[in-house]
Amino acid sequence: MREHLRSGRAAVAVSAAAALVAATACSPGSAPSGGSGGLAGVELLVAAKWTGVEEDNFTEVLSGFEEETGATVTYESTGEDTGAYLGPKIEAGEPPDVAVLPQPGLLAEYAAQDALVPLSGDAAARLEEDYTDYWQDLGSVGGDSYGVLLKAAHKSVVWYRPEAFDQAGVNPPETWDAMTGTTAPTLSDAGITPFAMCGASGWTLTDWFENVYLAQAGPQKYDRLADREIPWTDDSVVQALRTLSDVWSESDWMAGGTRGAVQTDFPTCVSQVYGQEQAAMVYEADFVAASAQEAGATVGETARAFPFPAVGERAPVVVGGDIAVAMSESEGVQRLVAYLASSKAQTDWAGLGGYLSANSGVEAGAYPDEFTQELAQTILESGDDVRYDLSDQVPSRFGATEGKGMWAVLQDFLRDPSDPGAAAQRLERAAANAE
């Protein structure tokens, strides 16, 4: 049986095909402008956080640029802390030609330091022609376009174990009230722990908050909060925290109780659902598929997903991802960014698996399995309602630093969610300190 992922009116079906695994490349989409050849002897350095299969797939995409232009492109991994890698190189005046940033907050910081080169020519044209206004704005600072979203992650899906749902006689919920009022308590009454929580990885808790906040407060208020136009003590924040407490206050609903929830990292929480069978559900992005497979599950069969439940009128669509920026004015840099931003390059990338694109020119058939195809379609069909991960838009000291800011406050709130107002005040103080 196939379950459906719904976001608004968009349906995202989970097939039996394994997600996020290598597959043969599909037919190319539109070719990037700029002609061919002309860069023989040019050497360019690209830096991103990817390793393993992600690195292999990206370097294969880069090889297409080398074949088209004659340039030589070297890839270097930044490691998980992209800022720690780039900071010294920027200070020394030796940045990579192109960097792939995991956070728009970093893009804004580097633009303020004049460490980025605005997109121009074919690179700017690709951004304008193939990406919606929202994605264009995401990569812009002060009216100048600096970055293009290369690789997306769909962060509005909840993964579950069908056997556990069948045993309890429940179906995937479409609303928050159904999940907290029927699905979770019915699972618990059947002796099945509803959730595995990844609380030791603070970023997963920010993703919980962002989905609830976007669905409850709406995209406009979400933007205002990200831009510091409203404080974190706003009633909408308090209400989102109060909604989260519907789950976070139920110690019996979490594998290992509250203590276990705070001490379990990602991807260990995934193995608690698939493999260890200690819980029925785990919330996180499409990339859960890889960890579920490592635990022995088959995506679409023993590992399925449903959309993050609607808190209000519609289900949220929150997207994370990696943004390419130019950091030098060397010959060929703008052509490389244009190539990476093109539907041709991203169609090739999609065919390799483990990839989602926000480029409107990448067709669903480019992806190797139905699950990924329909996740990608959801991102495109969400139009102006889709939003980028809020914690990655704010300064990294607030939104993306272990033991600080949002991560620390939400971990404490998971430990004791009894006072949403106090948690909101702590978030506001942390946001102010990060400025």
Tell me the layout of helices and strands.
Blueprint: E1 4-7, E2 10-13, E3 43-48, H1 52-69, E4 72-77, H2 82-91, E5 98-101, H3 104-112, H4 121-130, H5 133-138, E6 140-141, E7 144-145, E8 147-154, E9 157-160, H6 162-168, H7 176-189, E10 195-196, H8 202-217, H9 219-226, H10 235-248, H11 257-263, H12 268-273, E11 281-283, H13 288-294, E12 304-307, E13 318-326, H14 333-341, H15 343-351, H16 370-381, E14 387-388, H17 396-399, H18 405-415, H19 420-434
Parallel strand pairs: 3-4, 3-5, 10-11, 13-14
Antiparallel strand pairs: 1-2, 5-13, 6-7, 8-13, 9-11, 9-12
List keywords for this structure.
four-stranded mixed beta sheet, alpha/beta, D-Maltodextrin-Binding Protein, domain 2, 14 strands, 19 helices, 435 residues, six-stranded mixed beta sheet, globular
- Indicate the percent of residues in helices: 40-55%
**In angstroms, what separates the terminal alpha carbons?**
50 Å
Rough outline: globular
Query: Based on the structure given, which CATH architecture of the largest domain is correct?
Result: 3-Layer(aba) Sandwich
